[in-house]
Write a structure and sequence with these properties.
two-stranded antiparallel sheet, 24 helices, about 550 residues, mainly alpha
Length: about 550
């Protein structure tokens, strides 16, 4: 990504102007003072244009050594900084830096200055008292170049530090990768694929290395860059040849594809999604490394995956949408295996938001499909002794049913069936608390239907609960009545209190629970109940 004019001014123009102005002011002031004390001031001033040949020859003789010494210092400092950045983030830093035209221009300036000084010194043909040839123009150019070399040194270091800013490194890798796809993809497809794979892997390397160094901001920038790369790629994918989409040769031996069955690789090529698959496989790798370590990275990956899926749905890219949903399921599975409850809690939130966005796509079939996945992974987490996730799934399904109400009746009916099938027989005290949470979510949905004057759907929920223990239902009733704050009393990502009901919905609680015969009175069951914070059950 090219630097803005403001950045160029800050890096180059401002320090150069300050240094040049100070140096010129000091020289002019001191020279004027010296000239004013001379018997022939005009002769002293003329020495600037016509210097003493002996002094000029001596100065130029040392100019080559000065330039070479300064160049050596610059190269040493730059090499150390570039190597450190390369080791910390990705080896691509060295390649990008060396290919930057500014480096060639600055180093070339030093080389030309040294050569100019050497050659001009050789052309002197002056003998004191006898005259001869004095290359005044060559002297002037040599001194001008030497001055420029010294003045440009600090702005150049500014440029180096700015160039090696890790965020800028991420931007440049993305830009080079996209440029390689656009430029070579219409010619040499294999070379373009190679450049695309290299860029994606290096962005993932930056994310992983930054995580290891606790550079959360850099890691998040790399994760965002992968998502932006996929979006930009989608804008120009239509102009790429068929050969670009085939997974064969070197691409088929890439670590992310080499273990796949040839039939699967052929399908990926036919569906034209290998590049999206490559990016999402990097997401999967970074996501796995961040579990239980740097959860903000997991959340950002889930957010970006949702946004990409929403874009795919809006643009009717069905293959990409299916792929993104598969990776959402993969995230859930990985978090369950790692027993990372907090990540599951937030990934479920993003997955549910995607389902809401898909309610009106393809007759809502995608939303129903996600709801079935919710049920599956909720029960999987429950059996893995992560019962809070089942409760989370129930509340997310409840929210999804509320969103679907009044939009698509057939979708709502399917979603409600899935929600009512989420609860299972309790196997312990922790599981019991979670299953009570599932029932509370179902009761909350019933209050929504009653507040919306849809008693039939509320009756459906009541019928599913008809065989519940009266004591259990009474305690659920009393807990829902007792929650008065819409916000949870700790800082959590969702911020909402699962058990809170708006006043108009709380007003329907008595009506709903009035359908249950012989429930204990509120005084007999009222308890002080403070639910665990998200993830507390994980220990």
């Amino acid at each position: 990504m090219a630097a803005s004019s403001h950045d160029k001014g800050r890096i180059w123009l401002l320090p150069f102007s300050i240094l040049a102005g100070v140096a010129l002011s000091v020289f002019v002031l001191t020279h004027l003072v010296d000239a004013s004390g001379s018997a022939d001031p005009w002769r002293v001033l003329d020495l600037i244009i016509h210097p003493n040949p002996q002094a000029a020859a001596s100065t130029l003789a040392n100019a080559g050594e000065i330039v070479a010494a300064v160049l050596a210092i610059a190269l040493t400092v730059v090499a150390i900084i570039v190597e450190l950045a390369s080791n910390r983030y990705t080896h691509r830093v060295t390649e990008l830096f060396v290919s930057e035209p500014v480096n060639f221009a600055v180093m070339g300036l030093f080389v030309v200055t040294a050569l100019q000084g050497v050659w001009v010194t050789m052309t002197f043909d002056y003998t004191p008292g006898a005259g001869g040839f004095v290359p005044y123009a060559g002297i002037g150019v040599s001194m001008g170049l030497l001055t420029l070399c010294l003045l440009v040194l600090i702005p150049y270091f500014n440029f180096v530090f700015a160039y090696l800013n890790p965020i800028r490194i991420v931007e440049r890798i993305s830009s080079h990768t996209l440029g390689g796809i656009a430029g070579q993809g219409r010619g040499d497809a294999a070379a373009s694929q190679r450049e695309a794979v290299r860029g994606v892997e290096q962005l993932a390397d930056v994310a992983l290395n930054a995580m290891q160094n606790r550079d959360k901001g850099v890691s998040m920038a790399a994760v965002d860059a992968l998502a932006d790369l996929m979006r930009d790629y989608q804008q120009g994918v239509g102009g790429l040849p068929d050969a670009w989409f085939r997974v064969e040769g070197e691409l088929a031996h890439n670590p992310d594809f080499v273990s796949m069955d040839p039939a699967i690789l052929a399908q990926i090529g036919e569906r034209r999604i290998w590049f999206e698959m490559k990016i999402l496989r990097q997401y999967q790798m970074v996501y796995g490394e961040a579990l239980n370590r740097m959860r903000d990275i997991n959340y950002l990956i889930a957010i970006n995956t949702r946004l990409l899926a929403e874009d795919a749905a809006a643009e009717r890219r069905r293959e990409q949408l299916h792929l993104l949903m598969k990776f959402f399921n993969t995230y859930l599975r990985a978090a369950i295996n790692a027993k990372d409850v907090r990540t599951l809690y937030n990934v479920c939130h993003q997955y549910r938001m995607l389902a809401q966005a898909l309610v009106e796509h393809r007759d809502g079939a995608y939303a129903v499909e996600i709801a079935r996945y919710f049920k599956y992974y909720g029960l999987l987490a429950y059996n893995a002794h992560l019962p809070f996730i089942l409760e989370t799934v129930a509340y997310d399904l409840c929210t999804l049913c509320e969103y679907a109400h009044g939009k698509r009746k057939e979708v709502l009916d399917e979603l409600l069936k899935i929600l009512l099938a989420v609860d299972r027989t309790s196997e312990g005290s922790v599981q019991e608390a979670s299953l009570r949470g599932v029932r509370k979510a179902q009761v909350k949905l019933a209050t929504y239907f009653l507040a919306a004057d849809d008693e039939g759907l509320a009756r459906t929920i009541h019928e599913d609960m008809a065989g519940e223990d009266p004591q259990r239902m009474a305690s659920i009733r009393d807990e829902l009545f007792s929650i008065k704050s819409p916000e949870y009393w700790e800082v959590i990502d969702r911020g909402a209190n699962f058990d809170y009901l708006e006043p108009e919905r709380r007003a329907t609680l008595q009506r709903f629970f009035g359908w249950f015969p012989e429930l204990p009175t509120a005084q007999a069951t009222l308890v002080s109940h403070i639910p665990a914070a998200p993830g507390e059950e994980a220990g």
